[in-house]
Amino acid sequence: xxxxxxxxDQSPQNSETSQVSIPHADASSLRQYWMFFSGQLLSLFGxxxxxxxxxxxxxxxxxxxFPGKEATILALASIAGFAPFVLTSLFAGVLVDRxxxxxxxxxxxxxxxxxxxxxxxxxxxxxxxxxxxxVILAIRAIAQxxxxxATQAIIPLMVPxxxxxxxxxxxxxxxxxxxxxxxxxxxxxxxxxxxxxLATILWVDMISFLMAVIPLALITIPDxxxxxREAKExxxxxxxxxxxxxxIVKAKGLLPLLLTFTLINILVTPxxxxxxxxxxxxxxxxxxxTTLAIIMxxxxxxxxxxxxxxxxxxxxxxxxxxxxIGQFAIYLGVxxxxxxxxxxNLWIVAAFAFVDGLGMPIANIHSQNVWLxxxxxxLQGRVMSVRQAIAWIMIPVAQFAGGILADRFGILTVxxxxxAIGLVALTLAWYLTSFPRVEAILGLDVEPVVPxxxxxxxxxxxxx
Length: 464
Description:
CATH class: Mainly Alpha
Low-confidence stretches: 1-20, 446-462
Distance between the termini: 22 Å
Largest sheet: none
Number of domains: 1
Structural class: mainly alpha
Strand content: under 5%
Number of strands: 0
C-alpha cells in the first residue's frame, strides 16, 4: 500500500542515497521498536505529570507577581519550551542522518534528565523563579529538538511499510492515554503536596527519564551511515540541508499539505496555552486545578478515541480526506470551547475539548501516512526536520502574539478569531489549491490498508 516509485525529476539525487544500504524491516525489528516505544511511554508519563504541575505553578506565580500579565507569562513559557526545539530540529535532522541514531536518542534523554535534576534542586533549595524555569524549559527543548527527528527517522528502519498506519495510530493511542492519565496524577499531586513543593513532583520526571534509557540500551537500531563515517565520506551540512528542502519542493503536492498544518499551528497553539487562565478567570470558569485537569483529560480523551478508531479501521480511502476532516474538527472544537467559556459552562468546554482532541490524530496520522510513504529512509532525518520546521516555524510568534492579544482584547477574542480564520482558510485550501489532490499528484496507492493485529505532522497540536 502506498508504495511510491520516485522518478528522477522527483527525488533529489545525491551520493548518499546511492551508497547507503537500507536494512529490511521485519517482525523482529518491529518487536524491538515496540520495546523502545515502551521506554518512551514511561518518560512521557513523567513529563506529562510534571508539565501539568509546572503550568499550574506558572499560572499561580504569574497571578501573584505579574497581575494582569498572566497570559504574556504563559506565552513566554510556551516560547521557551518550544522555540529552541523548532530552531534545533531544523538542523538536527541533517546531523541525525549523519550520526548513530541510537546514540542521539540516548544522549537526548540523558540531557533532559540532567536539566530536570537541576530544576528539582532549584525548587528544593527555594531558588525557583519564573526566569529559572524558562531557562530550564529552553534547554530541555534543545535536547528534544534532536530526540524528535531521531525518533521519526528510525520508523522506516524498524517498521515494515504495511504497518505504518497501525504503528502511527498506536503511537497516538498510547501517547493520548498517557496525557489522559498524566494531568489527573499531576492534579492529585498538586492538591496533595501543594504547588510550592514542586521538587517532590519533579522526582516523577527524573525517574521516568532514567527508566526510558533501559529499553533503548537493549535494542538494536540499524546504523545506516556507519560505512560512510568509517570511509570518511563527507558532504557539506548546507548541501544535505538543501536536499531536505529540495525533496519537499520537488515532490509536488507536499508543500500545500504542509502549509495547512502551518496555519493550524499558528491559529490553535494559543488555545491550550491560555486554557489555565480560562479555568481560573472569574468571568469565565472560575475554577481550580481540578477544572483545568478535567479540560485536559477530556481533550486527551478525544485524542485517545481518534487514535483507537484508526487502529481498527481505515475510514478514508484517501488520506487527504482524513487530514481535512481532522483539521475541521480541531477548528470546530476551538469554536465550541470559546462558546462554553463565554457561558461559564465547564462541561461544554470539556465536550468541545474532546472534539478538538479527536481531530488531532485523524489529521496527523493520515498526513504521516503520506510522508512515510514518500520519503526514503536515508533522507528521513533532514526531510522530517524541514517539514517540522515549516509546520512549526511561526508557533513561537503565535504564542507570543496570543498572550499579548489575550491580555489586550480578551482570551475569547483569540479563540473566536482563530477558529473563524481557520475554517475559512481550510475551505479555500480545499477548493483553490492542490491540497485535496496531493495523493494523486504523488502517485500514491489510495486503496485501503488491511490493518494487522501488530501494533507529528507535527502539530504541537498537529503536523510533526
